[in-house]
Amino acid sequence: MKDVPQELGQQILVAAESYGTSFDDVTMDEIAIATGVPRATLYYHFRSKEQVLAFLLTSMLGDIATSVEAAVATGEDTRTRLSNVVRAQLGAMAARPATSQLLVANLGRAGKLPDIAAGMDRAFQAPVRKILSEGVESGEIRPVDPDPTATAIFGAVTVVGLHALMLHGHLDVDKSLEALVVLWGGLAPTGEAT
Question: Is 49 in contact with 22 (CB distance < 8 Å)?
Fold first, then answer.
């Protein structure tokens, strides 16, 4: 995949909201029609529809990473920063509901799984591990192993967000964040009320 010009990227992102969750029957011709981009231009930048999926995933992870980075840098307490990070991921999913569902349904087609896992780690899990480590060090949260805990948080947030999208067709960030409050109780230092 070649570098994608900003305008073309935006057209692909907008059109992705109309594909639904199945990408099996979508053709490059249909992507060209949905984006309003000539087929030749589309093929110049993407050899296949799987490369379009890879672009969508990279873009989504980029949005999450930017939002998460801002949440981590606030200097607030551990629980507030974790809440802000979760809000950032849910916000990215809410901003592109159909694309979120499309990517999860076709994740194995969007690239090599180790590369996808590394992208998710950079965008969400590594910053969460950093917050968890700092929270343990400061005594704000009970001692936890940051690696599996960050993975568990990522999984919980993703499932709660997808559940809302699939069941209700939209994602209410505040309501979903409230449903994840159990995470904060489990992180409280021993003997501290949540």
Answer: no
